[in-house]
Amino acid sequence: MAVVPYKDQNNNKKSQVAQMFDNISGKYDFLNHFLSAGIDIIWRKKAISLLESQKPKLILDIATGTADFAIEALRINPEKITGVDISEGMLAVGREKLAKKGLSNKIELQYGDSENLPFEDNSFDAITVAFGVRNFENLAKGLAEMNRVLKPGGTAVVLEFSKPRMFPMKQLYHFYFKNILPVVGKFVSKDNAAYTYLPESVQAFPDGQDFISIFEEVGFKNTKWHSLTFGISSIYTGRK
Fold first, then answer.
1. Is 114 marked as a binding-site residue?
2. Which tens digit of pLDDT belongs to each residue from 87-105?
3. How confident is the model at residue 1, as a pLDDT?
4. Residue 123, annotated ligand binder?
5. What count of other Cβ atoms lies within 10 Å of the Cβ of residue 132?
6. Is 29 annotated as belonging to a binding site?
């Protein structure tokens, strides 16, 4: 059974995730940086650096949210970045951010379902996803779509939360995720479910080698798994 934000609702995970991000979009960036003590910024920089040597010209950023990952990707000088997301609320915040930074000509944000991407086969040199694959309704289908729209030889980079397995980080992580993060998240975002869903979805997510297995099953090759910050987060890469 899929982990969903609103357990009292009958609609599917995709609809609930879109609703959740619409609800918290105005506070999302603040909470992201605050609850991770800014480490999420370092994780994004590390993930994008893995694409640097390949010099991709066309990048697709899936589950782009407020476009933080897409903005970070400008550092490797692509010609264009396209960001897609199922939350119009997050996209609106992202577009406002891009306009303020004068980046609207370099990054285009549009509505897009990760499991039914509105692009032709072999369209992008690289694909990035930060903290998004965990929210896919069908993980394998979403990863297969990424493979479909990626050009042969292109690279996909996935940044996602994972579960620390070593003492004492494992215990500290679980205490923080279960007792502190939901309380602060609820207080700031005013959404009762969003920051309870986060630890539940991380717990249910097939991280590490389990994710690599699914990544390879849908067609990615030369896969690698980079563990970050004692296993709190991971970067996965694969080539088509």
1. yes
2. 999 999 999 999 999 999 9
3. 53
4. no
5. 23
6. no
